[in-house]
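Structure, all two chains, one model.
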Amino acid sequence: MSIDKQDVQKIAHLARLALTEDDAEQYQHSLSSVLSLVEQMQSVNTDGVEPLSNPLEMTQRLRDDVVTEDNQRDAFLANAPQTEAGLFLVPQVIE
Amino acid sequence: MFEQSISALAQHLRNKDISSIELTRLFLDRIQEIDPQLNSFITVSDELALQQAKAADTQIAAGNGGPLTGIPIAHKDLFCTQGTLTTCGSKMLYNFIPPYESTVTKQLQAAGAVMLGKTNMDEFAMGSSNENSFYGAVKNPWDCNTVPGGSSGGSAAAVAAGLAVAATGTDTGGSIRQPASFCGITGLKPTYGRVSRFGMIAYASSLDQGGPMAKSAEDCAHLMQAMAGFDEKDSTSADIPTDDYLANINAPLTGLTIGLPKEYFGEGLDSDVAATIMSAVKEFEALGATVKDISLPNLALSIPAYYVIAPSEASSNLSRFDGVRFGHRCDAPRDLLDMYTRSRAEGFGTEVQKRIMVGTYALSEGYYDAYYLKAQKIRRLIKEDFVNALNEVDVIMGPVAPTTAFELGSKTSDPVAMYLEDIYTLSVNLAGVPAMSVPAGFVNTMPVGLQIMGNYFCEAKLLNIAHQYQQRTDWHLKTPTMAKGVSA
């Protein structure tokens, strides 16, 4: 299975990765070889096989809807690249 | 002193032959002296280590504390440690100081262990050679021209070189067992859900599992006593009581049935590695075990299934690295999209970007059924192989990797060749069963690990089996020449 440079740029856009033309060309080869490797799966008949997402076949355990943690706003903001007035600062979204 | 077991060191600490502060200083000095050649640490937390050692000495003086009190260990740089830099081997997190502590490191700290620092690793645990770290490759202490294995290569190299008594690692597709094998130490990947994933930076959540890496099975058992258990903070943690991992470590192996899967001894396996594994199996026969030929017919499919499932989960898990709340942010972003795309392209290395894109592709509209769903169906076939085999035998044995540690740079240009290195380990993660790597000999001066795989939650049995082998052999006691530094 091989993909072209345009496909790589499309996937990169979905993955929110800015690729240069050179990057896209490099990834075109490596992604194609990985996708060829995973193509092997298609030769296996899996009709009637239930997909397995958790090896222990457990379902998500839910907790009671009660507050269990203290407010740690300052601690969490401490790692942010930019903050203002106790909020995460990002480039303007709405004109 | 640096070569001694946890039990022996604990005895020395209790007898006041040495204090934890002295022991910690000895390891910090060794790191300073030897690690420049290995690059096994990203962060050395000297001050914190000495504070913790002081507290441990106080506890020991008061007659309290357990076997881990005052023992210097290291943590893979993927476990969040409150107040200590945690990078996950990535430029993306070059400045990340976690505001919370992972459950594993918290439990080991509560058991009195001293944290020497954070060990180097493949970026976001993606790799089989530790060459994908933003902080540079780690070297194998047995031969600095070879890789230590990945992605817990920093932990493995540090333990093998005597820079820490033991270390934590994580295993998504073999990342505890393969570096343990390449560096000649003992490593255990527990059953999925046995050790909490809370505070572990996620790669592939349905496969990731933390576990101990140490010189011996007995030392791994000491770590498991503290690490294992149910954790409310991890919604996939197994709510099943833990075993006492030391209680039956000396039980005889009479009556043990060992399965040897024919698929583990086929094409691609180095003949000297195969001979080493078979001579280890003979030791088990001498200990009273019987051997049976078995089959894990879908083994070859574990590679394609893994390289769909793991990247798919990674593409989702790594979406949180967007330059908003933590981690790297690009300079002067034009708008929000520009900030996301440039921050991520600058922060992630090529292997991480590649896996994110493979996962994004596999989960995208039109491809989901053909890739992700198909891989999950194959995952069930692989699990059934293990369930069927383990109905016939108590444990499965085989090699950890097809070869010993390979040369640095020798496989970096061919990703598929690198991925094939994981053929014997990946299926264990897909099935979720526990498995160990135990030093079993050398090929051309490089260590070989024997893999022992068992049934769900049978870690105590695996440790017993490995310990009995280590009572008869001394492979786990061998030390690389470079470890015998001046402060030994």
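Chain B touches chain A through 73 residues (CB under 8 Å).
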